[in-house]
Design a protein that fits this description.
The complex is a heterodimer of chains A (131) and B (140). With 131 residues, chain A is an all-beta fold. Chain A has strands at 11-12, 24-25, 28-32, 36-42, 51-56, 59-64, 75-79, 86-91, 104-108, 111-117. Chain A starts with 10 loop residues before the first strand and ends in a 14-residue tail after the last strand. By secondary structure, chain B is mainly beta. Chain B has a domain at 49-77 and 94-130: Immunoglobulin-like (Sandwich), CATH 2.60.40. The chains are: A mainly beta (131), B mainly beta (140).
Chain lengths: 131, 140
């Protein structure tokens, strides 16, 4: 028997954001092989120009804005799900394996696919020495 | 009821309204009914939204029969083994089918369906005779 999709209530992000709207935590699949780390993120309602992806100091952040303009001229009558911007962060283990320049991202049908290729060598790090 | 002006206002209005599935459409209320829908009144009738990320237009069917409107389809599981194993698997996959019983003032032969950025929008016009009519008053 084929699997059936069921509904999940959206999880609100507890960490405060600077903007007042409630932010929600998108569902993510994470896979890994020898070449890369792959993320698939459900971001319905988000367009490419509303999407921010950052890889900074080992932390990957995906943020997607939704447009109030999509609801222009409409009055809510009945609701079953909440609407709001998406945000999710991950700490990447061995972050020096990933080069931000090589990250590839594609948004289609409301799903973001991110590929983080593993670089061959770790980045050299400068260590300051005092004394 | 005010028109939507910004996202925060939209959120506040939706929060006030959040209701159990089926209450508007008089379906039996099962748990986990998919997809959840939001219903809005627009200038010409109803606008129904549903989030269906990962569903392509050819994986979706919208059909009407009398007063019933059915949204059905499938979100496929990834079948590319070469991406390796999963560290996390939160996104569901599988079939879905939901039937909504539409209010009587709607013309179910006039449904416009659009799937964009993972959001399905259904616009259903009111029947002509149900639309508000301006009646001119003759002096007499």
């Amino acid at each position: 028997m084929a699997a059936e999709l069921t509904t999940k209530t959206k999880q609100e992000m507890a960490q405060e954001q600077t903007r007042p709207e409630r932010h929600y935590r998108p569902d993510v699949d994470i896979r890994e092989n020898d070449q890369a780390l792959y993320l698939s993120v459900d971001l319905p309602g988000v367009t490419a120009d509303g999407l921010d992806i950052e890889l900074d100091d080992g932390q990957l952040t995906v943020a997607g804005r939704v447009q109030a303009a999509d609801y222009e001229g409409l009055t809510p009558l009945y609701t079953e799900y909440k609407v709001g911007p998406w945000i999710r962060r991950f700490d990447l283990p061995d972050a020096n394996r990933f080069d931000p320049e090589q990250v590839v991202a594609r948004l289609e049908h409301g799903v973001l696919e991110v590929k983080l290729p593993k670089s061959e060598r770790a980045r050299p790090r400068k260590i300051a020495v005092s004394g | 009821m005010t028109l939507i002006r910004d996202l925060l206002q939209l959120q506040q209005e939706l929060d006030q309204m959040l209701q159990r599935p089926g209450a508007f459409f008089r379906e039996p209320s099962g748990t986990g009914v998919f997809p959840p829908v939001n219903v809005f009144r627009g200038p010409h009738g109803l606008s129904i939204r549903a989030e269906l990320p990962g569903v392509a237009p050819d994986g979706l069917s919208v059909t009407t029969e009398g007063r019933q409107l059915t949204i059905a389809g499938e979100r496929p599981a990834a079948d590319d083994a070469e991406r390796g194993g999963y560290h996390r698997r939160e996104r569901g996959w599988g079939r879905f089918s939901r039937t909504l019983h539409l209010p009587e003032d709607l013309d179910t032969s006039k449904v416009k369906a659009t799937l964009r950025h993972g959001v399905l929008t259904l616009e259903i016009e009111q029947r002509e005779e149900a639309k508000p009519r301006h009646i001119s008053v003759a002096a007499g």
